[in-house]
Every structure is written in structure tokens, then in C-alpha cells.
Amino acid sequence: MYSWNKAEDRAAIAQMNSELQHAQLELLSAHCATHQLRLRFSIEDIVRYGQRDVLRKSAETASALSEYYSSMQEKIRRGEATSTPDRGLSRGLSEDRGRELEIIERVSTYLRQQRDHYFASALPLTEQHKALMRPYFAASLLDHVRVVELDGKRLPNLPFYREAKALGFEHLPEFAHMASVTLIDVVVFNEKLTERSLFHALVHAVQFQVLGLEHCTELFVRSFGNAQFIVPLDAHAFSLESRFARPTPEKFSVEDEVRLWLKQGRYEGKREPGTDPHSFSKNSQPEHEI
């Protein structure tokens, strides 16, 4: 068994955590792909018409992974209940972290519920908008995303907004003041839809697709909970939006850009030397939502 107190073991522990992080990203990608299946097709249709060998292998892999990670989860629970963790291991949830996880879960649930609520009345993108956005976004995403213009109404704030502020999350944005809110794959516009605001909202839809709902929500809540002046998810969307709005816009893949930031750890607040920090102040940004 490795020990953080042994110098020769620390390199192996660092390598283990690097590989664990890589596995997590792969799992997030698989989770996102499965979520898209869940949204589009019923289990009955998948079982009836899906390729049997693919279904069988997918189910076997998912079951094996579930058993593997569940065994770790059980050991973590027992360890937290009976002992003090080693210095290099998790120290358990602090009170602040517990509050953060609670808000993350509630925001995720709210986004999912609002997405389902507005999906019924949402409309597909027009062919004109699809043609304009096609150089930047995958055709599958443009076909799948739906939009709603509230026309005089505004999306209400989080129902637990005051409670979140009381728990220390004083900087969560007010949805009612935003130009648009991206609810996973449904974009609700508080204000008139424009080409630029649509592009910005679609960047967030790609972030949801690549990172997954829970990871996006955690990054979002953590940024505002820490009173950061840079919210990486939004900073990236504004950066790409600026490139899109140039007089002679360049063509690029938003999905490739999102995956690059994810690989570099820039959504986590890391930054490569010499790269543009995209330091947008929350007080100076137009109001948008992930």
C-alpha cells in the first residue's frame, strides 16, 4: 500500500491521480453520450431496435464500472466513519464543501426541471440560424437544440436564491436579469434572440454536452461561490463570441475549443503560460447563463 509519507510513493500517487482524472473525463463523455440517448429515445425503443451486441457490451461495461466504483465509494464511507484520512488522501467533506455540494445538486435539479418544462413549447432553430451557425457547431447539435423567446416575460430566479445567499453563495446571478439562460439543450431568451446571443448560448450548450450537467454546474456554482471575477465557462463563451462577431469572422469548431480548454484544465481555473486569460469581470459582462 502506498503512503504519502514515503518520497518514492508520491510520484506513483501523482500518476495515479492523473490517470484517475483522465478516466473521469472519459466517464463524463460517456455520461453525456448516454444522456443524449435518454433524451431522444425510450428504453423500450433502444432495446427493441438497438444492435444486440452493442447493447450487451455497453451494459456489461457499465455494470463492471458501477461495481468497481461502488466498491471504492463504500470504502470511502467506511473510512470517513472510522478513521482520520492520511495527509495525501481526501480529508472528507468540510462544512463549506457540504454546503457547496448541496447548492450544486439543487441547481442541477432546477436546470433539469426547467429544461423539461420549456422543452414542450420550445422550437427548433430556423434554417437561417442553422446555416449561420453551421461553420461553428455540429449539425447534430443544431438539429437538437430548441429555443424559447419569452416575449415580455422573464425566467424567474432560482427558487432557493435567498437560501443560497444565506449559505454564503452571495454572488449567484439572477436569471431574470440575463439575456438568455441555457438549460442543457434548451435556450430560454429573456430578451430578443440575436445572432450573437444565439452563438453565446450555443457555446454553453456545447459545454453541457462535453462536460456534462453536473460538472458544468459544479464549475459554475464554485466560481460564483468563491466570488471570482473570472467565471471560466462564461469567459470562454465571451471569447468565442468575440471571434464570431469580428468583421471578418474566422471559422472554427466550438466543440474542439471546449475540449481543448477541458484538456488544459482551464475550466478549473488553470491557465497555460502566455495564453489569454479572458478576464471578464462579472460586473462588466452582459448577463448570460451557462
Write the layout of secondary structure elements.
Blueprint: H1 7-40, H2 43-49, H3 52-82, H4 95-119, E1 123-124, H5 127-133, H6 139-144, E2 146-149, H7 161-166, E3 180-183, E4 186-189, H8 195-211, H9 213-225, H10 232-244, H11 254-264
Parallel strand pairs: 2-4
Antiparallel strand pairs: 1-2, 3-4
Question: What would your notes on this structure say?
Answer:
By secondary structure, the chain is mainly α. It has two domains: 7-82; 95-268, no CATH class. Helix content is 59%, strand content 5%. A hairpin with a 2-residue loop joins strand 3 (180-183) and strand 4 (186-189). Helix 1 (7-40) packs across helix 8 (195-211), helix 8 (195-211) packs across helix 9 and helix 8 crosses helix 10 (232-244). The protein is globular, with a radius of gyration of 21 Å. Residues 85-93 and 272-288 have low confidence and may be disordered.
Count the E strands.
4
Catalogue the unreliable spans.
85-93, 272-288
Q: What general form does the structure show?
A: globular
Task: Tell me the distance between the termini.
Answer: 42 Å
Q: Can you summarize the main beta sheet?
A: 4 strands, mixed
In DSSP terms (H or I, runs of 4 or more residues), the helix count works out at: 11
Defining key terms:
4-stranded mixed beta sheet, 290 residues, disordered C terminus, 2 domains
Q: What is the gist of this entry?
A:
This protein has 290 residues and is mostly helical.
